[in-house]
Amino acid sequence: MAENAAHISTIPQAKPTIFEVVAQESLLATLKPSLRILCEAVVGTNPERYRKFLAFYDELYLLFDCFLQHHYLKTSQASFSEAFYGLKRISNKGDGPGLSTRERYLSLALLVGFPYLRHKLQELTNNIQTKTYATHLTAVTRCLQYFVKGVKTLNLSFECLKLYYYLRYLSGHYSSHSPLLALAGVQLVYQKHDPSKITWKDLFNFVRGRNQNITLHSFPIFVNLLMKSLEMIAFFIQFLKWWHTDELRTKLNIYPIPKPPTVCKAPLDKCPLCLKQRKIEVALQTSGYVFCYNCIKHWLESNKRCPITNTPSSVHDLIRLYPTEDEC
């Protein structure tokens, strides 16, 4: 009898840990700048032709993100990053196994529209702050300053609210770790294994002609291939981000803290090496000092360091300086 009643158990589904929910949010935040780098590389091949796409990158990414999140919300009941970590969304009301139409579209709006509007507001405030205004304050200037302060206050309030939700989620008082999830009326749980779900092995077998259970009529094969590829690309992006951060931290730690540079006592219009009027002036870009070309060239070939600051340098770090019209 217990075996027959196992499917109606009222044990709630396990909640994911705070590390998993933060990791999926980090993955979602990494996707947009990573795709922008790819777009910049494409634009670099033909700037005149593809520059306009980079100018409207935010809007193009908005459309792409809307399609991506809608597909995952419809098929996996989760966002792209949540499905990647094996999570899904369920209603806080517990009125069904899946999301209602209202909850799905509200989740889509908060996943796609809210970050877009927040990014645009941040860009607008940055543009306002970088503008140069007159010394005297006008009514328009005061309004713009109040607007910038209001946006900053809203951002700070939202970040504090996120932290509050994190703490309440850790303590077990809240079922949702984010105010956006609470606003959509959903929470995150682990996805159950679905034997009917298409896996990478099934896709490879289909391509090789060994899996007859998958057909183009019963399953959108190309869409799933695309989504699976995006998941692998997202994992590769996360790995590169971790690798670069770890490598950069290692590189910074292996070098000792350099000593402050020595102040050169030579006259500013003389070469610090020969103490004579400079001939064929060149600047050493590792230190900024100006020498005679012959003096510094022979010095670097022998010592491989700046004679003033002792900074590692080479002949390739020399920059030729040309006299201005007043000096000629």
From TrEMBL:
GO biological process: protein import into peroxisome matrix
Location, primary (coarse class): membrane
InterPro entries (UniProt xref): PEX12 (IPR017375), Pex_N (IPR006845), Znf_RING (IPR001841), Znf_RING/FYVE/PHD (IPR013083)
CDD domains linked: mRING_PEX12 (cd16451)
GO molecular function list: zinc ion binding
Membrane topology: Multi-pass membrane protein
Ranges in coiled-coil conformation: none
Cellular component, GO, one term: peroxisomal membrane
Keywords for the protein's UniProt record, in alphabetical order: Membrane, Metal-binding, Peroxisome, Protein transport, Transmembrane, Transmembrane helix, Transport, Zinc, Zinc-finger
Domain RING-type positions: 271-310
Subcellular location: Peroxisome membrane
Pathway: Protein modification; protein ubiquitination
Family to which this protein belongs: Belongs to the pex2/pex10/pex12 family.
Main function: Component of a retrotranslocation channel required for peroxisome organization by mediating export of the PEX5 receptor from peroxisomes to the cytosol, thereby promoting PEX5 recycling.
Protein name (Swiss-Prot/TrEMBL): Peroxisome assembly protein 12
Originating species: Ranatra chinensis
